[in-house]
Amino acid sequence: MFWNIFNIIRLGAFISYSLLLSVVLWRGPRTRPVQAFILYLISMVIWSLGSFLMHAEPLFGTALFWNKFMVAGIAAMPILFYSFIRSFLGIKKQKKWLYLGALFYISFLAVNIMGYAMKEAYFSEGVFYYKMGIAGYLMAPGWFLFIGLATFNLIQSHKKARDSFYRNRLKYLLIGILVMATGLTTNFTKLGRHPLDISLNTVNAFLIAYVILRYKLLDINIIIRKGFVYFTLTAIIAGVYLFTVFILERLLRGVVGISLIAVLMAIGIALIFQPLRDFLQRWIDRLFFREKFDYYQILREFTQKMVTILDLDNLANSTVNTISETMQTDKVAILLGNEEEFYLKTSLGLDKSLVPSFKLKKDNPLLVYMIKKREILTRDDIDIIPQLKGLWESKIRELEMLEAELFIPLITKDNLIGIIILGKKLSEDNYSEEEHALLSTVAQEAAVAFENAKLYGEIEEAKIKLQNWGEELERKIKEKTEELERSQALVLQSEKLAGLGQLAAGVAHEIRNPLGIIATSMYYLNEILPEKRKEVKKHFHIVESEIDRCQTIITNLLEFSRTSDKEVEPVDVNALVNMTLSLVEKDLFGHDIRLIKKMETVPKIKANLDEMKQVFLNLILNATQAMPKGGELRIITSTHNNKVRIKVSDTGMGIFKENLDKIFNPFFTTKEPGEGTGLGLAFVHTIIERYGGNIRVESEKEKGTTFTIELPIL
Amino acid sequence: MANATELLRQGKRKEIWQKYCGFIDLSMDEFMKIQEQLLMEQVELLSKCELGRKIMGDKIPKSVEEFKESVPLTTYDDYAPYLSEKREDILPEGSYMWCHTSGKTGQHKWVPYPKKMYKILGEIFLTSLIFTTSKKRGDFLLNEGDNILYGVAPPPYLSGIAYRALAEELNVDFIPPLEEAERMDYVERMKEGFKISLIKGIDFFAGASSVLANIGQRFSGKGEKSMISISSLLHPLVMMRIAKALIKSKIARRGILPKDIWRLKGIMSGGVDAEIYGKIIEHYWGVRPLEAYVSTESGVVAMQLWDYGSMTFFPHLNFVEFISEKDSIKSQKDPNYKPRTLFLNEVKPHQIYEVVITNLHGGVFVRYKSDDLIKIISLKNEKLGVDIPQMAFYSRASEVIDLASFARLTERAVWQAIEGSGIKYNEWALRKEIEGKYPVLRLYLELKGEERGEEEIMDAVHESLKKIDPDYNDIEKMMQFKPLRLTILSPDTFQRYMLKKKEEGADLGHIKSPHMNPSDKIIDDLLQLSKQK
Q: Smallest Cβ distance to A390: which of B22, B34, B141?
């Protein structure tokens, strides 16, 4: 056997492939890509074994035999690799290339056995020589064709793929091809004598195995980044180390031993390693991932500032804007929870009409799950997680309106206080694991910030509420005091009127009898004295008419004081006002009075129609008499607090302030003696009170008077 | 939302398991929560439609308890006037498919499947595919482009609709291709299917277990002539497949079996025969059929897992309630009797219950008495770590033969007894008849090259039945009475019966004579056909 370092590498490759094959056979899922990968590995095992034995001057078989054996593996590899890529990508069409490959391979095997692929292979003075036959040169175009097809398919799939995990997988395979191609390229250079191709193919095989055996792969971008950092770090440290050792060794030769220098250097390196690594990481991030680096930096800085923003609206808006900018998405929203539900606090890029209407009840399975699991959910998770199968179809549609890609829980002290919702990225990529991790950190800080802002907002709200309550209390006290005063006045007035009524009724009773006697006597006198003198006749007439007047007054007094037993019925106030107005229409016209009516449709009241007619007639006639030079009579009807309100206003001479509290007193009149009895408004007051209503008067001298009546609705 | 094809392409096998099989990891509380949430959604949908208002009345239940208290139990008769006319205007959700069944009861039924129900049905059928290929939790052997030999009834029957729905979840190749298969009659489809599968192979078989058992028997020379024609063997790929199979069988030192020709990943089968033929099929095909509890009205209620043991309930297609066996019998005798129902978290192990289902996702059936009896095997599947009650199909309530209140015989028990007796038979039917004053069991049996005499055959089945059903055993022990009687039917009687029914244009469900309690008319027909020879 012939051993050298390169042959050990070949043996290593063979052992690696064999081990890999065993692992895949033992642990790999029995899927079609895995089966295709196994075939690919077998071709690589043949290749590496052939290569090793060919160079090892084996005890059995000639170098040419093992060379042919190796070539059988090499020729199969690209076809099987292409087959694996097709299977991995789920490609079913264009099978003709596979058939062509199979045909090519079978033909190639035949010509290889016949010696047209490899003509000679031998060792001479420890150097390996080989000579390819005409068919051997066909391997290169075959290799380029199938590896080219595999690369093409991978790139196409990578372009179409929307899922970041899948894209990541494809990137691994593409890098694997790059590594493999690099290895193969060395065969066209002087390096071709060394087993670089097989070594780099081994790297590719391990990459593929990692892709198909591991469920989740590390982000290849991160690996490249980290790899670059550590490569640079190692290069710098090694360079500095060697340079320093070289210089110190020169300078301190004979003073201190080289081993002491090395120990000191090692301590120095240990001390500077971490800061240097961080520095390099930042430097490389800035240099190669500038945009991403800047965005993440902005987000981290904003996260630190968040807790200082106490205004909830401001915090919510700043958060959605910053996340949108840094995560490169045009849709961000924040849901915040209250006692019963989660509501959309703010959103960016979503239909604005959603903001007030979007609500999630606290027993929504999504919220229950997020409280329990406390992890970021993706849109796909909603479809996948079994605990979410209870989500109503309508609720799923509502969630879809948010166009959410990520749901990030905001949790403080075991409570879910809100959710940050992120839409798809503008690039249509999925969020990477690195971004998930970053957003989780942001969410932890944001939860605290939102909790603080919420508490602050609640305190502020409570303060304002307290202030409002104070003002409201003050206003209500004032209102109640005024109401009480008015009620007191009304009670006084009512009591006074009731007293006066009783008195008047007593007096009327007492007077009615003697007046009856006088009237009877007058009748007899008239009968006894047949011929009367003209003067006597005149005085008789005066006495009779005064007796009539007294009787009218007595009747009115009794009417005023007695409890009504008249028939009560539903009364349409508007119709009654109109009817009353029709009685006085001429009078209004004659006095140049303009009538303004504002009558809403009001419910009926319960009263006696005649009495109510009398009420309105009294008020309207009073108003007319108050405007001898014309003016405006305004009648308004409306409904307030289950009461019908009737306002009768004039623009007449008004009532003196000192008379306002007397106008409902019986016999109070400002008219000339003989022009009024002073019982009209007293009568109005009595009727209104009888039906559970009230009457108020407001007046200003020379501007007019307004009577306001309120009567309960039927 | 990614379906199984996309998830497979992305290598997300864990997500596939979680999406389609993750329900087995639910706790009982989580299971009931899902049931409750979806029932309340269904109640809301029902409250907005005519059919729902007719069944629920004016009072809309606010909780599952209220639902149980206020909504009456229903049967197909409550729906028949609307569904027979396929009235869309009264449904809670528009139908996506109308599913047909004639059922063993003889009643022609139309059942609307809304889009969501249809989708979930497809997902659950995919779950069955996953379980059949699984050996442990999370591990399964499913690929895009797997072949399914299409041996089920085509649309508008439920199985045909379900496999259409499955095809929307996973990109599978049906053999023969779906559109052609749906147009072919059964025999033609099977012939064409096996012809294609000799070239392409079969990954899954969907259909009746008895068909697979029958094909297996044909290979071992016990059955009828092979379905494979000589001409189809001339294809190079077929020759390679047969050569490979021959080598395998020679190494195993036995005759060639279907499992040497095809390497099946799984068999999906419903019905009692899946259990009866389970072991035979495994012997011939290398895989056991996976059983599921399926009905047209409910879709899939429960399914076996990869241990091929008891079945696990699904939480999201139907809301399930249970009537105790005692109450079920009582309600069969007295239609006015209102039995009490239990929820899944209230059932007890080893008890038999009648299943009451309420379709979710806009389906029509509300507290629908299924007439299916199931047995709760246990409250958990300890072996697989599933915390959901486990069931086995017992019988259709109307098919149980009650023998003097001593024994209640099910189709499964009788079938197992006939199989266990070692009698070579083609088909059978059993019913209760009155002999003098006593009820007896009469078995109508068509033999297949059996050499034993009538008495011997009867004794063999009787002894086998005694072993299988202890209550039946007690009849002889306590009453010194042997209740089994036998009528041997001439060869091909059942085949002729099927042909006769086909000619009469009978519905697919009525072509075969029922095993249990066939009507007088059917027995008369069989006896008549038996005489014709």
A: B34
Cβ(A515)–Cβ(A554) under 8 Å? yes
Do A298 and A369 reside in the same domain of the chain?
yes
Residue among B1, B8, B30 minimizing CB distance to A387: B30
Q: Which residues on chain A are in Cβ contact (under 8 Å) with B12?
A: 165
| C-beta of residue B294 within 8 angstroms of C-beta of residue B370 | no
Q: How far is B30 from chain A (nearest CA, A)?
A: 7
Same domain, A283 and A352: no
Q: Which residue of B has its CA nearest to A384?
A: B19
To 10 degrees, the CA torsion angle through A160, A165, A169, A172? 110
pLDDT digits (tens, 9 = 90+) for A484-523: 777 676 666 666 666 666 676 677 777 877 888 888 888 8
Residue A243: helix, strand or coil by DSSP? Answer: helix
Whether residue B367 is found in the same domain as residue B404: no
Test B13 with A166 for CB contact under 8 angstroms.
no
Query: Could you tell me if residue A113 is inside a domain?
Result: yes
The answer to whether A387 faces chain B, any CB pair under 8 Å, is: yes
Confidence of residue B43 (pLDDT cuts 50, 70, 90): very high
A108 and A10 in a common domain: yes
CATH at B446: 3.30.300.30
Residues A445 and A308 in one domain: yes
Q: Region A406-424: what's the mean pLDDT?
A: 91
> B130, B133, B125, B116: which is closest to B167 by C-alpha?
B125
> pLDDT, tens digit, for every residue of A629-667?
889 999 999 999 889 999 999 999 898 888 888 888 877
- A609 vs A593: CA distance, rounded Å: 26
Q: Which residue from B minimizes the CA distance to A170?
A: B10
Inter-chain contacts counted by CB atoms under 8 A, chains A and B = 78
Residues of chain A neighbouring B26 (CB-CB closer than 8 A): 386-387
Tell me which residue in A365, A384, A386 faces B25 most closely, judged by beta carbons.
A386
Query: Which region among A48-52, A316-320, A363-367, A546-550 has the lowest average model confidence (pLDDT)?
Result: A546-550
Q: How far apart are CA A200 and CA A181, in angstroms?
A: 9
pLDDT(A132) > 90? no
> Domain of A95?
5-171
Q: How many domains does chain A have?
A: 4
- Work out the minimum CA distance from A32 to partner chain B, whole angstroms: 7
Count the alpha carbons within 13 Å of B295 in the hemisphere toward its beta carbon: 24
Assess if residue A89 is contained within a domain: yes
Please check whether residues B488 and B517 belong to one and the same domain.
yes
pLDDT digit string (tens) for B357-367? 999 999 999 99
